[in-house]
Amino acid sequence: MNAIGRLAYLRRNGRRCISFTLAICLWAIDCPAQNSSDKEQLLTLWAGTMPIILAAPHGGREPIPGVAPRRGIGVAQFVAERDSNTAELAEAVALKLRERLGATPFLVIARFERKYIDANREPAAAYEMPQAKLYYDAYHRAIGEAVEAIRQKWGSGLLLDIHAQRAQADTIFRGTDNGRSVSQLQRQFGQAALSGQNSVLGHLAANGYKILPNLTGQDRETRYTGGYTTRIYGSHRGTKIDAIQLELGSDLRAKANLERTANDFAMAIAVFTREYLLRGDGFDLRR
Length: 287
Prior knowledge:
10 helices
């Protein structure tokens, strides 16, 4: 059964690997299946065994009990629509990495609908009802704990914040606040770590993906420059974690293409991890 098929199977059976209700929002060491209703599973959290964090704040489909949809009064660039299939993609990439490497990234997925909470905004713009604060805080606490776990065990790592865009269906836009959120990576390894052949985006480009800004290093990020997550957790804040917001076009997130996209992303992340994060640690890409 392929990764996408397995995800569908898990959901039909009301299970997710390390999916918790907010009442028990804790990291775990293993991956036992958890039984609970879909409405209770408002976060999906995986404990990682490699220095990578995958985050998906806008792909959720669930309502939040007692919380009304946001109205967006006074919020600049208010958006309440779901980033379709980004939660599914993030989870599929994590599964692919585990299959390929026997190593698991940290995974933080918001299962609540964006119309209730925008987890990629500062608190004042993210939610409107006090009851929503618990869920917003839990999402960011999970990322913060993943950042700290990576810093303590590996010293540095990479956070990929997965989003959707409708501007160009076949394109991945990069957002790093024009290099600020990956400042440590570039300082240590140069531009090649962001756009070279062994970078995540460089490896994807070599496999036929269109990346913007282009990988020559000449173009600035203008359409998508990164959001709250990259600004808060990026290495320019002293976190030791480099953060990239990835905006994927609709063709790359379509159900028919999700398996291929997840597989290519997993391989790109694995190549990057071996080259820049776990150099000389016997990191195995042969699986």
